[in-house]
Write a structure and sequence with these properties.
Blueprint: H1 9-12, H2 27-62, H3 80-87, H4 89-92, H5 98-119, H6 126-134, H7 141-151, H8 157-164, H9 177-205, H10 209-217, H11 222-233, H12 235-250, H13 254-259, H14 269-278, H15 283-307
Helix pairs in contact: 2-15, 3-15, 5-9, 5-12, 6-9, 12-15, 14-15
């Protein structure tokens, strides 16, 4: 007897070739895939160009004129405004005032890094200390300026506190260039310490806890943990903080403008630029000063990025 074996339906319907190439997507689909990211970027790019790059272009154009900010006519003067900035000593020497804020930014970064390192470990009342350190960052800069204006005035809060410790002085804290700039730089340290502290604390807490445990088993001290674990782990945040602090010291404005208005040798480059534009009606010269400040900040940032490249750090 003959047996007839039938093939299974799956075998009968097996494809002739296994390695078939999928058909390419239609042209319209490929076009939408290319355009979709740009459609999402359209609104932010429009805002960036309108409110950032267009004003910068106008500022550069105004810096090449003698515009007074009121007249509808602009007269092209070339690089005359830039020549005046670098040749007039009274216009460029205000950058020396930024040295006080630069020193203050170093103190501020060191203090913020110290408190962030200490409070990243188990310390009693550490949440209370975090709130105390971060509180000044929540206060408006104008309010801070007025508070410390009365704090440093003759017979004010600072003299009263010194008197409690038996120190009596008739020194005018905002009366001489050195003491005034030192006081203003100290206020900036108090105000911005909390922001840098939060940045450092978040970076430190992002480091895996297993590294600390392994280092303790190897007999590492707190200093060794800071030197070989914390410091390399927060290098990108530390670099960013240094860049922001340097640029902030060069463009200090709010605190000195409110407390002294630039008097007694406390005039910064930004205060001088504002006075040139709105007090002396030299908008062209003020625009040139703003361009110079922008270029200096970009140059400092570029040099710092070259000296300290932002390399990826692998601790594990």
């Amino acid at each position: 007897m003959t047996h007839i074996t039938e093939k299974a339906p799956s075998e009968a319907a097996a494809p002739a070739s296994v390695g078939t190439t999928p058909l390419p997507a239609p042209r319209r689909t490929r076009t939408w895939r290319v355009l979709t990211p740009w459609l999402f970027l359209l609104a932010p790019l429009a805002l960036l160009i309108t409110f950032t790059y267009a004003p910068i272009a106008n500022m550069v154009a105004y810096s090449l004129t003698d515009w007074d900010g009121v007249s509808p006519e602009l007269h092209y003067t070339g690089a005359e405004n830039y020549t005046e900035i670098f040749t007039r000593e009274d216009l460029f020497q205000v950058f020396f005032v930024s040295g006080y804020y630069l020193i203050a930014s170093v103190i501020q970064i060191v203090a913020a890094l110290y408190f962030a390192t200490v409070l990243s470990f188990q310390v009693r009342f550490r949440n209370f200390y975090k709130g105390v350190l971060f509180f000044p960052s929540l206060v408006n800069g104008v309010a801070i300026g007025f508070v410390f204006l009365y704090f440093f005035q003759d017979g004010g809060t600072f003299d009263t506190v010194l008197g409690l410790f038996g120190v009596h002085t008739d020194h005018a804290w905002l009366g001489t260039p050195f003491s005034a700039n030192t006081s203003l730089a100290g206020v900036s340290v108090w105000r911005y310490l909390g922001m840098n502290f939060v940045l450092f604390l978040g970076a430190i807490q992002s480091i895996p806890g297993e590294l600390y445990e392994a280092s303790e088993l190897d007999g590492a001290t707190r200093w060794h943990q800071f030197r070989y674990i914390i410091l390399p782990g927060i290098k990108p945040v530390l670099t960013l903080t240094v860049i922001l602090s340097v640029s902030g010291s060069l463009s200090a404005f709010e605190i000195p403008y409110i407390m002294t208005g630039g008097a007694t040798g406390t005039e910064t480059f930004v205060i001088q630029t504002v006075k040139l534009a709105f007090q002396f009606n030299k908008t062209g010269l003020a625009s040139a000063a703003a361009v110079v400040l922008l270029l200096i900040i970009l140059l400092v940032t570029w040099v710092q990025r070259r000296l300290v490249p932002d390399d990826r750090v692998d601790l594990v």
